[in-house]
Amino acid sequence: MSMTTTSDLWVRRYHPRPDAPIRLVCFPHAGSSAPYYVPVSANAGPGVEVLSLQYPGRQERRNEPLVDDLEVLAAQCTEAILPWLDRPFALFGHSMGATVAFEVARRLTAQSREPVHLFVSGRRAPSRLRDEQVHRRDDAGIIAEMKSLSGTDTRVFDEEDLLLAVLPIVRNDYKAAETYVYADGEPLHCPVTAFTGHDDPKVSVEEADAWREHTTGPTVLHVYDGGHFFLTRHAAAVLAVITGSLTPAAVQSR
């Protein structure tokens, strides 16, 4: 496939499966980057080709300006994945990435390119607002937040240079997530599957269940033990749900 320069910047294809009937496009959480989804890509099986988005300002894109507006980020992601939508595709995002995936789904649906499934993890429904201001904290406050959610490699906290490199990205992404305001619009029509941790301080079970308000399609909520990064413990179970929902038979039955 001939790819555009924009797509080359944004899209990571760690395990090419050119014959897979479905693509799964994955969106990282706040402070994260495309390699977070390498295990998903490796273990998705022959029927699903995984693409992972690399946002600006991190890793090999570290010299590009960060994007602190979630709507702008979603618009850029949408443009970047267009060349890859030559077959049925689904979207997955965790935390901030879930909201980005939702906004990408809205944009694609408006272009008559609706995903076959939207998977959202560790994030309240867009219609459920919270007044969160973590991005306004000082560095110590940001670090305390990172530690409390247990989603960051603990070695980062022991290496000052690494921590100083990560903090602006985390603050930027929290700003994008916390200043996002859902705008009423047409609901999606695809199935939505939501995953949440029972003890996630960022998402109540009710807030996760409210994703059903954003689609006319079926909605399923899976609740696991654990906090915001319940995915770490339940990765295999979550991936099994995703791949089970993306078999050709499952997609065609809708």
TrEMBL record:
A Pfam family reported for this protein in Swiss-Prot or TrEMBL: Thioesterase
GO biological process: lipid biosynthetic process
Keyword Hydrolase: yes
SUPFAM superfamilies reported for this sequence: alpha/beta-Hydrolases
Single GO term (MF): hydrolase activity
Segments forming domain Thioesterase TesA-like: 25-246
Entry keyword annotation includes Nucleus: no
Keyword tags: Hydrolase
Highest taxon of the lineage: Bacteria
Entry's family note: Belongs to the thioesterase family.
Protein name according to UniProt: Thioesterase
Organism: Dactylosporangium siamense
